[in-house]
Amino acid sequence: MKASFFYCHGTNYLYNFMTPFIDSELFNTLSPIAQESLLSIDNDLFLRVGNQLVSGGGLVEAAIPGLNGEKYMWNMTPADDPFPRMLDPDLWDDRVMVPYPAVIFPGNASIEYGRASMVSKISALTRGKKFAIGGYSQGAAVASSVYLSGLKPGTTGPLESRRDDFLGAVTFGNPRRQVNHRGAGGQFGTWSGSWLDDAPGAGGCFPDYGPQKRLTGCEDKWVDFVAPGEVITGNGTSEKELEWQFLSSIMVASIDPGEAINWVIKSGIEGLIDTVGQMMNGGAYGRVGVNYFIDADGNPRNVGGGGHTAYGIWGLPNSSGVIPTTDTVIGDETYRAAVGQTMYQVALEWLNDQAAEYTTDPLVIPPPNLPTPGWSTTIYPPA
After folding, report:
1. Cα–Cα dist 168/264, whole Å
2. What is the CATH number of the domain that holds 224?
3. By residue range, what is the domain housing residue 137?
4. For residue 223, how many other CB atoms are within 10 A of its CB?
5. How confident is the model at residue 370 (pLDDT cuts 50, 70, 90)?
6. What is the DSSP letter of 216?
7. Total domains in the fold of the chain
8. Are 29 and 157 in contact (CB under 8 A)?
9. 376 within domain boundaries
10. Is residue 366 assigned to a domain?
11. Beta carbons of 221 and 169 less than 8 angstroms apart
């Protein structure tokens, strides 16, 4: 029997929540890299800035490497995420992209909708059928809620009776990532530093309280991937990062609305933009700048989002937060090609291994010389 996999992609409109705060005049004061990141972090065609409709550039597909020489085309938008279909179909009979709103506001309701949808699909599986889950960005927050619906030891919920069927999970850019958690044995990387200053001890950008609080006590089979320059799952404890965490808590309704209004009044629009500016330009490694990469077909491509969009194109960072690449200068830009497996490939290989162990369990053959049960026309006296 094959296993099933359920996955939620990332936020469809990551920057829509900023448009009430950023008007055209303010947009023009941002640095070129900040403008480019703002327009392209989701690789959407258009973004409304104030009353202006600004082009974010055309969608260009990139070839993303899978396993065994396979390649998958991705236009780098969240909804087009190829990860579930990259799994081995000989091991997985269901590779489901679970639909959900995937919007910033109201973030908590969006995540809860996704949780209920994924729980429903898992609950419909035949008892004893193994499954795994996963998600990217907000989709990883959905998967985290599913994990807390009875799959994680010590929790209760509708999936508590399916805990023995749970093979594990993989997430990319999880805003609810437990501080410093990655997975078993360092095989999923040892980097867990801050997006702002590389300080160790980072976790998801969601708060430690409220309905979407960060995870704690995760098992080894709960695997979180984290890249350097990752504002969603590599949030530290500096003043700017705590401000970003506060903004994130507003998105998912983890704080009182009055408190949020008081913060905006106190910090002012300049404080908000300063925090966003730090995300765009602060620190090394481009942070939330544009990733210039060489795809699996050897073509130069780019996508905004810094570390948050690195998982399908580059490999695991080392303990210093350096991702090994080979560099090629094309025009004025340096394009980087992955060395070894990408983080997607590492995740695919691990998931396939979990499913293979299940699908290749030996059949139990009954011992010989046992009486064959069946009907008989002969009545035997009791012994």
Report:
1. 40
2. 3.40.50.1820
3. 3-359
4. 26
5. low
6. -
7. 1
8. no
9. no
10. no
11. yes
